[in-house]
Amino acid sequence: MGKFKLKCLKCGREYGQEYRLTCENDNAFLRAEYFEKKLVLRNQPGLGRFHSWLPVQEELTTDAGPITYKSEAFARELGLSNLYIGFSGYWPERGAFIKTCSFKELEAHPTMQLLKETGGKAVVLASAGNTGRAFAHVSALTGTDVYIVVPESGASKLWLPEEPTESVHLISMSPGNDYTDAINLAGRIAKLPSMVSEGGARNIARRDGMGTVMLDAALTIGKMPDHYFQAVGSGTGGISVWEAAMRLRADGRFGQKLPKLQLTQNLPFVPMYNAWKEKRREIIPELDMKDAKKQVEETYATVLTNRTPPYGVMGGLYDALTDTDGIMYAITREEALEAKALFESLEGIDILPPSAVATASLLKAVEEGNVGKDETILLNLAGGGYKRLKEDYTLYQIEPVATAKNPDISLDELNI
Ligand SMILES: Cc1ncc(COP(=O)(O)O)c(C=O)c1O
């Protein structure tokens, strides 16, 4: 007996339980429809708790999962009475055990499990750093092969809290290539026989894994928050919590109003901010990311630099922002660094650059009156605890098996 079906958001065509990224009729997203309409928590330590709304048959037993807690010191500083922090990272004192330190692990576990349950090919993905680390970790735990393509700027982020296994294949790119070049090369490798593309935002296991941040928050708070803050590169996290919120609304126990998405990008690379400012569904490269590669190089939170985000596609970020009357922010490096120092000193945990960007956007939202002092706010700190992890674990750098000069390199030459 299955537990979900896939449905195309445009034509309504339905598919069974398979690892499918696209509809055969059109380009819109597919979405999982779960047969369990109410969230029934399972007795698992991490994200396996949310099995009802994860597209896998076997319950995930990992202790990695999102946590939510009510902020005191930082909330007081901002004058907020109901600020909740969603933390995806390593912070054992608060029950957070994501040892690759970002919410990308929430997507890696269900994706690898779904692949195993539906054919078991090797998975190929591009990463600016955090996603690759998460998939490499799950590969090291399960032995399933993964091929990870990273730009040079992401290579140093490819470490593991255990010794890398032979199942982890890292392909790094020469300087001058960015995250989008890595996406293009990964797309070509994924066409080889016995390989399958991870799929990015099109992968429902990725989205529903990331959506557990919203599920955990609603359970902790007792209802859905009024506002949701996150830094976005592709926007998949924003899409995911929107979808999770719609499931919670249908469940009926967590409120009927969808959280307002308040999402942020990091200057100078802010294409979705620019498009949303004009309420445009299309990103126009010449207007919204002029001189993109240079902008990407100058951006502090490099994982937020996706040149081809799923913004305008049906079911993508534009739809999520429209449906929740969302707001987007553009944050400078200095604002992010200031917010990071403030948060870390008050809350006692280190956070990654994208989380610093998200924190700065909350400061801005308070300043601009985009949240009420007593409204319920969820700040998704999607990465953190790296310094804390190093106190407990030895970290191992993953060595590349090949280096690509450019995304069009002959795959024979790569010899993978
Ligand atoms: C910690 C963290 N926050 C935010 C993001 C942005 O996520 P997305 O690309 O899904 O918008 C990333 C992406 O890697 C990340 O690692």
TrEMBL record:
SUPFAM superfamilies: Tryptophan synthase beta subunit-like PLP-dependent enzymes
All residue ranges annotated as the Tryptophan synthase beta chain-like PALP domain in the record: 97-383
Catalytic activity: O-phospho-L-serine + sulfite + H(+) = L-cysteate + phosphate
Pathway: Cofactor biosynthesis; coenzyme M biosynthesis
Alphabetical list of InterPro entries matching this protein: Cysteate_synthase, TrpB-like_PALP, TrpB-like_PALP_sf
Enzyme Commission numbers on file: 2.5.1.76
UniProt keyword annotations, A-Z: Coenzyme M biosynthesis, Pyridoxal phosphate, Transferase
Residues carrying N6-(pyridoxal phosphate)lysine: 104
Gene Ontology BP term (one): coenzyme M biosynthetic process
GO molecular function: ATP binding; cysteate synthase activity; L-serine ammonia-lyase activity; magnesium ion binding; pyridoxal phosphate binding; serine racemase activity; threonine racemase activity
Matches recorded under Gene3D superfamilies: 3.40.50.1100
Subunit: Homotrimer.
NCBIfam families: cysteate_syn (TIGR03844)
Protein name, UniProt field: Cysteate synthase
Species whose genome carries this gene: Methanosarcina barkeri MS
